[in-house]
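Hi support team,

I've been running sequence recovery on a batch of backbones for a student project. Most finish fine, but this one hangs at about 90% for roughly twenty minutes before it completes. I'm not sure whether the input is malformed or the queue is just slow. I've pasted the structure tokens below so you can try to reproduce it. Let me know if you need the job ID as well.

Thanks,
M.K.
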């Protein structure tokens, strides 16, 4: 049984702090709606003058990557909004590890991923002119030039994530597939990276994690105390 409904009892929070680096140009899309007065057709998503990788986008990326890993581990992976399976999981108290990490409509998420902004506000945008190809006919659309904005490679983004009540660090043998999955996630982000945002098919948006550390906090006498720290490997 994997009943992950443990929020009545907060035992541990593990805080992950590090940086994401985009190895290739990056754009988290605002779709085709540029800001008013914009000189480009497709703009970078900005908040208060800074580009932002929303925590929700990172969470979606991590979830879908770990879904593919979980299914190779033999789990029946399901759509996060599949009401029938979620009802089944809730009734039996036997949740899949993906819901056990990211939550579902009935179960709170055990991870919190914060919006990510460039370190010290340092970033460069550049523009690229593209040719709009008609999706159906594969031909150039009439008047089909457009400009898009991208964030230059090697931008360093502040990465923050909380892991709640999942005992991933310090490393020890543990019978919890969520730990296995989260470790695979961090190893992937450190080695080959994962792709986020627009134009992934042409290699854009490849992000890796750097200099990530964990701090573990436990509840003692009503206070969260730091009980350990280390490097995310
Ligand atoms: Zn599930």
């Amino acid at each position: 049984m994997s009943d992950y409904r443990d929020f009545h009892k907060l035992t541990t929070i593990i805080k992950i702090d590090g940086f994401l680096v985009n190895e290739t140009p990056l754009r988290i899309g605002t779709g085709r709606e540029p800001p008013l007065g914009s000189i480009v057709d497709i703009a970078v998503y900005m908040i208060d003058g800074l580009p932002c990788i929303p925590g929700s986008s990172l969470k979606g990326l991590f979830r879908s990557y770990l879904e593919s890993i979980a299914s190779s581990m033999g789990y029946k992976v399901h759509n996060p909004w599949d009401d029938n399976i979620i009802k089944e999981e809730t009734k039996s108290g036997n949740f899949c590890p993906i819901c056990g990490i990211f939550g579902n409509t009935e179960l709170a998420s055990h991870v919190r991923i914060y919006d990510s902004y460039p370190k010290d506000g340092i970033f460069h945008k550049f523009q690229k002119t593209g040719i709009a190809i008609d999706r159906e006919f594969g031909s150039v659309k009439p008047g089909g030039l457009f400009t898009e904005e991208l964030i230059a490679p090697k931008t360093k983004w502040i990465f923050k994530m909380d892991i709640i009540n999942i005992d991933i660090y310090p490393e020890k043998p543990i019978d919890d597939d969520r730990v296995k999955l989260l470790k695979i996630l961090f190893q992937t982000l450190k080695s080959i990276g994962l792709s986020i945002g627009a134009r992934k098919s042409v290699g854009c948006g490849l992000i890796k994690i750097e200099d990530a550390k964990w701090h573990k906090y436990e509840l003692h006498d009503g206070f969260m105390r730091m009980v350990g720290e280390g490097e995310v490997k």
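--
Follow-up from support: It reproduced on our side and the slowdown came from queue contention, not your input. The CA atoms of residues 12 and 212 lie 19 Å apart. No action needed from you.
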